[in-house]
Amino acid sequence: MLFPVTYRVNAAGHMEVGGCDLTDLARAHGTPLYVYDEETVRQKCREYMAAMGSAGHVLYSAKAFASPQFLRIVAEEGLGLDVVSAGELHIALKSGFPTDRLHFLGNNKSWEDIDAAYRAGATIVIDGFQEFGVLERIVPDGKRAPVMLRLSPGVKPDTHDHIATGQLDSKFGFSIESGAARRAVEQALAHPNLELIGLHSHIGSQIFALGAYEKAMAIMLDLLVQLHDELRYEPRMLGAGGGLGIAYTSQDDPPTPRHFVETIRGALDAGCAARGLKVPQLVVEPGRSIAGPAGVALYTVGSIKDIPGVRRYVAVDGGMGDNIRPKLYGARYEAFLASGPDRPSEAKVTIAGKYCESTDILITDIEMPALETGDVIAVPAAGAYCLAMASNYNGMPRPEVVMVRDGDARVMRRRETLDDLLAAELF
């Protein structure tokens, strides 16, 4: 699904999402503008929850996109939330997210991170041996903090190297292969202030080939056999991470959330039966596959530069400051003329940003209809890891964000002002 579920071309021939004409939104709110479709967010959440049923828990990954209004929708749909910093936790708490559904992940957690997570009542997912010492100082005598351990199963999925996380050579987790995972479990079980409720893993992101999850599950379950036989430990929860990919171009055909959950559930159930293990509660952590398809980025065309025989550059009023993914991961997007998505293509163009870097290119060599200065370009599948990694490079304010539903657009995050750029400065 490249577009939000409510997408259509309206009677004026314009792109419409959530009952709102995208050209009208650009005119009313300015650009760059990020538009989220509420129905898509809710539908994706419901697909995950229906597929999981009573077998476990679905946690939305806040790192994909976190805004109070967005998180309240996720909470209303019954999902939990995983956060990776005191900042993401703060946003969650301010949004009123239920604290009994919070999990705190992330490597190299600071004392402040862990203290905030403990005080909030979140389940803490330990990612390194140094965290045991921090927890010993934070958790009062006589109290026990619920924790999980992040394990690295040694599986590298078919995805970009920069978003693969489960292989041996990774900064994340306790390696099963090296024996660190076994030592971490022993240390957690011996810790008087910790209750080891489960084990967690995450192998990467933007994954289409689900066989990697089955392989990782088998490795995790083999470890569980060892832990059961030698330490008499059985986890109540087993995390398989998230990472389900989405369609960024019309050629992409990712698995559905149901297929993702059912594949992992099947591997867990069959694997436990074959090994004589009790089946723990499954935990999955989708982020991109919920937020990504719901978001559309809108830009206004500025200068157009023709280099005969070489390239036509179409510059827009955003770029790497609001979407660094093309430069960070080599991410590929598609773009459409918001006022005429069905118009025939005229030429191949390269859509460039306005930031002072030669690498600030959003899309290279894409077929587009005739474009003029002032046209609005829409880029779908922009809801995850764009705004989350947005910056103020070149002193540019970050974009406005709206949520659309039934013809109404409400502002979730106002456009930053120039004065906002100085909010933390001292004079």
Counting DSSP H or I runs of 4 or more residues, the number of helices is: 11
- Count of beta strands: 21
In CATH, the topology of the largest domain is named TIM Barrel
Assign the CATH class of the largest domain: Alpha Beta
Specify the biggest β-sheet. 9 strands, mixed
Distance from N terminus to C terminus (CA atoms, Å) equals 49 Å
Class based on secondary structure composition and strand pairing? alpha/beta
Q: What is the fourth-level CATH superfamily of the largest domain?
A: Alanine racemase
Overall, the morphology is globular
Report helical residue fraction.
25-40%
Low-confidence stretches: 158-167
Number of domains: 2
Give me the CATH architecture of the largest domain, please: Alpha-Beta Barrel
How large a portion of the residues is in β-strands, by DSSP E?
25-35%
- Rounded average pLDDT: 94
Tell me the Rg in angstroms.
23 Å
